[in-house]
Design brief:
The chain contains 9 helices and 13 strands. β12 and β13 form a beta hairpin.
Length: about 450
Amino acid sequence: MGRITEDLIRRNAEHNDCIIFSLEELSLHQQEIERLEHIDRWCRDLKILYLQNNLIGKIENVSKLKKLEYLNLALNNIEKIENLEGCEGLTKLDLTVNFIGELSSVKTLQHNIHLKELFLMGNPCADFDGYRQFVVAALQQLKWLDGKEIERSERIQALQDFPVVEQQIREQEKAYCLKRAKDKEEAQRKLQEEENKGEREGRHTGFDGRWYTDISATLPSSEESKDDVQAPEIQGECKKKKLDSGEDDLEFWNKPSLYTPESRLETLRHMEKQRKDQEKLSEKKKKVKPPRVLICEDGRALNVNEPKYMDTSLIDVDVQPTYVRVMVKGKPFQLVLPAEVKPDSSSAKRAQTTGHLVVYMPKVGEIITGCQGTSKPVKSTPDSSREKTNKRSQQMERLEVDPSKHAFPDVANIVQAKKHTPRRVQAEPKIIPSEGDPDFEDNPEVPPLI
């Protein structure tokens, strides 16, 4: 059975960032809740509260919800209207399809002066003669009853006939209460019979599955013989239980019953029992997975791929000389390597963009050059190893400590500016006419050219 818990309210308060103290609207419908509790302490700012289609038998623990405007308790097991006087802001109350037979209990709503709309259809009291007239006269603040507007003339007529109608309602209430008491006794008697029947069946069948171990004591000691004998018996027992449960289920649903709070609870408990039996049956059928074999008895590693989800925080890489194993959430991914590698020089990295896991594993007897193709194998002869060592030592750079070789450069003269020399304009050469020139004319009055 469901209960109102803090976790349940937070899960239904996603629209309010899962904050419950400032919650204004809460929906807890179809949660199999049997008792209304905790809400008035945890969610005092509630304005709308949905609790329809549950198993609540009593209105309680809502009197401190001063801001509550709409309360929906349809399809529950409520038999009396009570404990709503503290909901000062209540304007709409839905009690459709409950078990309210004490119609006079609606008078407790006279203190809710802001109540404008009330739903009582589907309750036993809605079948009483004079039901609507009684409610209209008792709750003069109402504007709507069962979805129908209350006219002014209807209210005047109901107030005039109220004394007579109230007497009729009291008599019908009394008859209903007597009938309800008999129904409760009958339901209690049936419940006791079911419990006794279950106890008798438990003693008759006995063992609760332990008879398998009793029979195994008489069987041969070998595991193969046990499996061969027990397997058909277990299958036959499961089939028998399934048939019996199916017959019981069909008998339960075909059995006539009254529509009472007890019958609703009985139906729910039957469905819950069927669900639990189905889960037990499926658990028995479920085969236990054998432990995963990663390394054979002769020491050979096997290729295994079991994980499905890759999360960096749950990855554990183990590099061995002949194989590599990646554990993801306890599930192994193992590869056998074609050559022996160096575990101490290996590394594992995961790409941040693609999520690929890359494991670097240098082979034994190879030189790994960073980011340059594949490594070249080295001959195992001693001469070749000496030559490689000499070459490596010759190519090795040494640290120079002489400060003269590391003098600071002249920053000012790093870039030398080009000197632009001014261009000189040379005078054109003067052409002096000679005496042999035909155009030459010697004028004595003209002074000679210097």
